[in-house]
Amino acid sequence: MDMHIASPTVAFPSACTQMIVLRLRPGISVKDFQGASVLKEVIEDLEKPPDVRRVYWGTGLETPNMLHLHVVRERLHQHYDFLASSSYVGLKTKFGSITEGEPTIRHAFLVEYTPECESLGRGAPFTGTAIYVDTDGAWDHAWQLWATIVPRVKGCMGVAGGYIVEPIDGHERCFIAWVGWNTTEEHEAYHHTKHWRDRRAILEQGHKGYREYCHVMFNNSHSPPKSLL
User: Fold this and answer.
1) Which of 120, 135, 122 is nearest to 17 (CA)?
2) What is the pLDDT of residue 4?
3) 3-class SS of residue 130
4) Other beta carbons less than 10 A from residue 83's beta carbon
5) Which CB contacts under 8 angstroms, 24+ apart, belong to 141-148?
6) Which of 40, 41, 46, 70 is the most exposed place for a label (fewest CB within 10 A)?
7) What does the pLDDT read at residue 220?
8) What is the longest distance spanned by two Cα atoms in the chain?
9) pLDDT-flagged residues of the chain (< 50)
10) Ramachandran region, residue 21 (left: φ > 0; alpha: ψ -120 to 50; beta: rest)
11) What is the pLDDT of residue 98?
12) Long-range contacts of 145-150 (CB under 8 A, 24+ apart)
């Protein structure tokens, strides 16, 4: 059974995103021949299943050795079915040749809060992200309000986010935010403005802290041929 986290104020889409985070081995880059070749095979394998709607990926700005792979499917159970399949075993062997350690895999029902949102691998050069933990109903209202404010800030290229299905280090009801930016300089500059100081309290409501703040450069996005959708 698919599982949506109940909220009276947020409408969840049926599509679910599998977020896979991998640590590249020292000396490996997805821009060099070995890294690019393996990544190409991994992406092609991820796109093969007929239930895959979209795949996009990128590397961390602050942590360029972290590779972020996002796979969009219609239903949550389809992701879990894939993880339990022989196809995933083969895929794990492939990306294991350029990565180290176990992958971090989470699932979220991501909502694009702004029209023509570019944050989820749709054009924004940089996407700021953070995970807010132990959220409550106040957070739902706070984030929806914030999603009407930040798009007006210079450099913002779209607001998205959603609840993560799995608990994180014992924390429940964790919300991951994805905000696209034209440059990280514009993002950082905003945090030094009066506009930010007057409104930052909105983001302090309804949660018990945030973690994993960083920027991801989603420069690549593929959609399977329409015949497979």
Assistant:
1) 120
2) 41
3) strand
4) 16
5) 141/9, 141/205, 141/206, 142/202, 142/203, 142/205, 142/206, 143/175, 143/177, 144/9, 144/10, 144/113, 145/202, 146/199, 146/202, 146/203, 147/113, 147/114
6) 40
7) 73
8) 54
9) 1-12, 226-229
10) beta
11) 95
12) 145/202, 146/199, 146/202, 146/203, 147/113, 147/114, 149/199, 149/202, 150/179
Pair of tokens at residue 191: 């945090």
Query: CA 52 to CA 28: how far, in whole Å?
Result: 28
* Contact criterion met (CB below 8 Å) for 135 and 200: no
Question: How do 99-112 and 126-132 pair as beta strands?
Answer: unpaired
Q: Residue 83's closest CA among 174, 173, 166?
A: 166
Residue bearing tokens 């159970």? 77
Q: Which amino acid is at 217?
A: M
d(CA 188, CA 180): 13
Residue showing tokens 């050069």: 125
> How far apart are the C-alpha atoms of 167 and 40, rounded to whole Å?
31
For residue 7, what pLDDT is reported?
A: 41
For 42-93, the pLDDT digits (tens) are 999 999 999 999 999 999 999 999 999 999 999 999 999 999 999 999 999 9
- Could you identify the residue written with the tokens 């409104």? 199
Domains and CATH numbers, the chain: 16-224 (3.30.70.100)
Give the chain's length.
Answer: 229
**Read out DSSP for 9-22?**
S-PPPS-EEEEEEE
For 118, phi then psi, to 5°, come to: -110, 10
